[in-house]
Design brief:
By secondary structure, this protein is α+β, with helices and mostly antiparallel strands. The protein has one domain (2-179): Alpha-Beta Plaits (2-Layer Sandwich). 38% of the residues lie in helices and 13% in strands. The chain is built from 7 helices and 6 strands; from the N terminus they run βαββββαβααααα. The chain has helices at 13-23, 64-84, 107-122, 137-140, 151-158, 165-168, 175-179; strands spanning 2-5, 29-35, 39-45, 53-54, 62-63, 96-97. The strands form 2 sheets. Strands 2-3-1-6 form a 4-stranded antiparallel beta sheet. Strands 4-5 form a two-stranded antiparallel sheet.
Amino acid sequence: MYSANYQLSFQYYLFFLSKVKSHIVPIADIQAWCLMPNHFHFLIATNEKSCEPINERHRPNVQLLSKNIGTILSAYTKGLNKEIGRRGYLFSHNTKAKCLSGVNDPRYTITCFFYIHQNPLNARLCNDLVNWEFSSHLDFANLRNGTIVNKKLAYELINFDKDNFEAQCLYSLNEKCLDSIW
């Protein structure tokens, strides 16, 4: 799961998502995502391609997924700076990644999945999750046919009730799992 803090203006969400489509979707399977005004979340299943080592002079043995996330953040910063006539860093160095495959609690991954989708509601950005279009919630609720998430793999790996997704998405999350997310 990836998360980074930054101020993302609503008008730039689509630009950010276009970078995700070109740099992450071809090399990894996104299970869930949500863009917020000041951070983002992605639940990603890696594969051989995304874990491929990229040997760079200044960063030896970096994996392709990590490099591409850095490319997205850099491209977004450059594009936004150019558009609004500013200079300098947009991101601090606090993008985080947590490997979920070694977590012993089987509820942890599903907690992360629903935590990502509940973010806009918990932040009071909307009263109903279907009103926040910058999340994979609409894809799993079958209200949009998005091309960023791999729904089939998400159903297999996360094992949630796809027929009752809307109701399940509103369940209270396990506090113990939530406390250990970061």
